[in-house]
């Protein structure tokens, strides 16, 4: 990538950057940038080295550096506010300098790891801002004997799974299904996947971390203290500091696991109805069977429903067939639908990539990007068949295959871990989580409005059938419709608690206390960060 290179170029780049700044999306103060760049060159161990990883709008590679990990095309349009500077440090001291200098210059700092935030909160702000992109900080060290690993935030889940699988056939890690997600944002908001019923969330399995605080100081678990260590494991990214790396506890997996994606087009309502009673409450922890629900066109040309039972079993196919045969015979699962494979291989298959080498896990751009809007809900009581039929009608209001509902079974370890163990509060009492998704490929305003309007109306309809007072949502499925900070994060506790309690329930108050102690000036903020009491 073309960046600012030698020390001569460094000076030239910095001067050109200052000269060009007024032409970017928002007006900026020349001195702010001068201060920032001078500060960076003074506070970096090697000014030439950091100059190579600075991108400003005058670099021809600025746009590709910005777009590199943007997942939601809704936020890749020219009208979306852009950062004044992007820095992709190659070592921790450079990241510390970026934090220190951004704060000193009075700009806002957004940290980005994998760029998968549903609302672009790692690279969009209406205030003049710097993006600290951790793409180059992605070392992973696996200690097989100790069954632990250190993983830097800029690594993707695919990279993590690959490095674990490279060292051991019987160790794994419970995190998300999408292999291109960044560890930094994912662990910060919880992070669930197909091992959740057996081992909980990614954040449940973090045992140490390194974080850069608002002063640019690097802290570990001992020096940050237990309150902050509690908060960063699920309290949401972009609020408490820049988490540089995480020490994780690896979990035991059998050498062979069984996976399948059973597609059913008949009796969908009764199958889904039954699933609600077995997937969380009857199946053993070793069995994770999630549901993908979408509309399709039937043989008669009319819209009809399709259900995919996406399954991972920590054991062999015979045991799996015994379990489903006795507790869910209606599914009619057959041996031919199942595949026995290694856990690491299952991560690729589970993501829907088959017949590709395992190295695909290392591809940071392995997924297809689109325009999308997603939402989430928690279900405490199974829905009746009559309600399910109503739900199908809503899905069928969207174009066939465009709207998808993903149902994630809870129970197992998710019910055993206390609601306050980490900030993620959705534990016992939840039968499943709903993930609503609508995706489109034409970015016109008309098309966007049509899909946004559909998902908002559908969400409105679902209110009667999901958690209430508060209606809960998953932090990592960020949804600005449920509330946002006003005036660049200077929101009152009362305003923020509207969405804060939806994500964190009773843990919201403790998060505000931690925030007040570690970042009273609200330097680390986004539209849904936790406010300190002082920002009322
Ligand atoms: P990104 O870099 O955009 O960061 C997200 C937020 O965290 C931002 O506020 C950012 O500032 C902050 N942040 C990032 N790095 C940080 C750091 N090092 N320190 C502090 N704050 C930091 N979830 C899930 O649980 N299971 C799943 O299977 C999936 N699947 C999935 C598929 C796809 C296609 C998408 C787009 C998303 C998911 N998710 C998911 C949701 C995902 O977990 C969520 O978007 C994460 O926040 C993404 O983390 P990234 O680092 O990629 O995002």
UniProtKB/TrEMBL annotation:
InterPro entries: BBE, FAD-bd_PCMH, FAD-bd_PCMH-like_sf, FAD-bd_PCMH_sub1, FAD-bd_PCMH_sub2, Oxid_FAD_bind_N
Main location: secreted
Keywords: Cell wall, Disulfide bond, FAD, Flavoprotein, Glycoprotein, Nucleotide-binding, Oxidoreductase, Secreted, Signal
Superkingdom, natural source: Eukaryota
Subcellular localization, as worded in the UniProt entry: Secreted, Cell wall
Alphabetical list of Pfam families matching this protein: BBE, FAD_binding_4
Keyword Nucleotide-binding carried by entry: yes
Domain FAD-binding PCMH-type per the UniProt entry, residue ranges: 79-253
Protein name: FAD-binding PCMH-type domain-containing protein
């Amino acid at each position: 990538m073309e960046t600012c290179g030698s020390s001569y170029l460094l000076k030239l780049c910095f001067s050109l950057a200052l000269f060009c700044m007024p032409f970017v999306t928002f007006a900026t103060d020349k001195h702010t940038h001068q201060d920032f760049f001078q500060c960076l060159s003074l506070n970096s161990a090697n000014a030439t080295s950091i100059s190579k990883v600075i991108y400003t709008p005058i670099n021809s590679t600025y746009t590709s550096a910005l777009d590199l990990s943007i997942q939601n095309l809704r936020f890749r349009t020219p009208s979306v506010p852009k950062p004044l500077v992007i820095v992709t440090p190659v070592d921790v001291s450079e990241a510390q300098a970026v934090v220190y200098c951004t704060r000193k210059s009075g700009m806002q700092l957004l940290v980005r790891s994998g760029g998968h935030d549903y609302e672009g909160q790692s690279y969009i702000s209406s205030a003049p801002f710097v993006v600290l992109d951790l793409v180059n900080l992605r070392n992973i060290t696996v200690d097989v004997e100790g069954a632990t690993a250190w993983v830097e935030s800029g690594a993707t889940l695919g990279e993590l799974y690959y490095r674990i699988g490279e060292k051991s056939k019987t160790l794994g890690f419970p995190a998300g299904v999408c292999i291109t997600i960044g560890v930094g944002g994912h662990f910060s908001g919880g992070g669930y996947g197909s091992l959740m019923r057996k081992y909980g969330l990614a954040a449940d399995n973090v045992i140490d971390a390194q974080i850069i605080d608002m002063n640019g100081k690097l802290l570990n678990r001992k020096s940050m203290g237990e309150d902050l260590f509690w908060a960063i494991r699920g309290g949401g990214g972009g609020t408490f500091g820049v988490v540089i790396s995480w020490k994780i506890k690896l979990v035991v997996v059998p050498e062979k696991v069984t996976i399948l994606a059973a597609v059913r087009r008949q009796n969908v309502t009764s199958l889904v109805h039954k699933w609600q009673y077995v997937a969380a409450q009857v199946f053993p922890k070793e069995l994770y069977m999630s549901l993908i629900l979408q509309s399709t066109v039937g043989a008669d040309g009319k819209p009809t429903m399709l259900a995919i039972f996406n399954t991972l079993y920590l054991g062999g196919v015979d045991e799996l067939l015994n379990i489903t045969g006795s507790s869910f015979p209606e599914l009619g699962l057959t041996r031919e639908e199942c595949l026995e494979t290694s856990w690491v291989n299952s991560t690729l298959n589970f993501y829907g990539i088959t017949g590709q080498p395992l190295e695909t896990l290392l591809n940071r751009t392995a997924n297809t990007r689109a325009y999308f809007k997603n939402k989430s809900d928690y279900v405490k009581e199974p829905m009746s068949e009559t309600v399910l039929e109503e739900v199908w009608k809503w899905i069928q209001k969207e174009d066939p295959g465009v709207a998808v509902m993903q149902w994630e079974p809870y129970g197992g370890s998710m019910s055993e871990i206390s609601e306050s163990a980490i900030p993620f509060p959705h534990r016992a009492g939840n039968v499943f989580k709903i993930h609503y998704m609508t995706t489109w490929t034409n970015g016109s305003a008309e098309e966007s409005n049509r899909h946004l309007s559909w998902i908002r109306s559908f969400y409105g309809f679902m209110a009667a059938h999901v958690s209430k007072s508060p209606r809960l949502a998953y932090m990592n499925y960020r949804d600005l419709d449920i509330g946002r900070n006003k005036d660049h994060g200077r929101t009152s506790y009362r305003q923020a608690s509207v969405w804060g309690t939806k994500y964190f329930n009773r843990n919201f108050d403790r998060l505000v206390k931690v925030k007040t102690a570690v970042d009273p000036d609200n330097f680390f903020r986004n539209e849904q960060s936790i406010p300190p009491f002082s920002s009322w």
